[in-house]
Amino acid sequence: MTVLRHYPPGVVLHTSSCPDITGHSAPSLQVLQAVLKYPSYRYCMCTGGGPETAPYVVVERIDYGDHLYIPKPGNPPRDAVRALCRTCRGTHGPAQQDDLGSGFVVAKPGQRR
Ligand SMILES: [Zn+2]
Ligand SMILES: [Zn+2]
């Protein structure tokens, strides 16, 4: 039986040696863990596209800014409570303040008003 859940906003998975994240000491997650936790992920080029080349990844959270939930057309993922947002690929659930305890957060100050 599939338990429906909310999806957090989409993230980008990097290797810890990705040039995009140089200068940060970013703890890595096992890729399978990261994918389970952040199903709306995509891979950075640096991973070579998958778990074979990047068994451990660093999660980059994207700041999508303030936006409205606009459902993406098409079928939602089987375990998502509803269609994913067109902007952030999350479901805008109540648990949006996710616990990126062992991940990597990119803060972009100045984007919020
Ligand atoms: Zn990268
Ligand atoms: Zn959204």
Plain-language structure description:
Residues 92-113 are annotated as: Disordered. The protein is mainly β and 113 residues long. The chain has one domain (12-91, 103-108). 6% of the residues lie in helices and 15% in strands. It has one helix and five strands. Strands 1, 2, 3, 4 and 5 form a five-stranded mixed β-sheet that branches. Residues 64, 67, 69, 85, 87-88, 90, 92 line the site of one zinc ion (ZN).
The global form is globular
Number of strands: 5
Largest sheet, if any?
Answer: 5 strands, mixed
Q: Which ligands appear in the coordinates? A: zinc ion
Q: State mean pLDDT (0 to 100 scale).
A: 80
Strand content: 15-25%
* Alpha plus pi helix count: 1
**H/E topology pattern:** EEHEEE
Notable characteristics:
5 strands, binds zinc ion, mainly beta, 1 helix, globular, 113 residues, 6% helix
Provide a quick synopsis of the model.
The protein is mainly beta.
How is the topology of this model organized?
Layout: E1 11-14, E2 29-30, H1 31-37, E3 41-43, E4 56-61, E5 104-105
Parallel strand pairs: 1-3, 4-5
Antiparallel strand pairs: 1-4, 2-4
The structure holds zinc ion (2 copies).
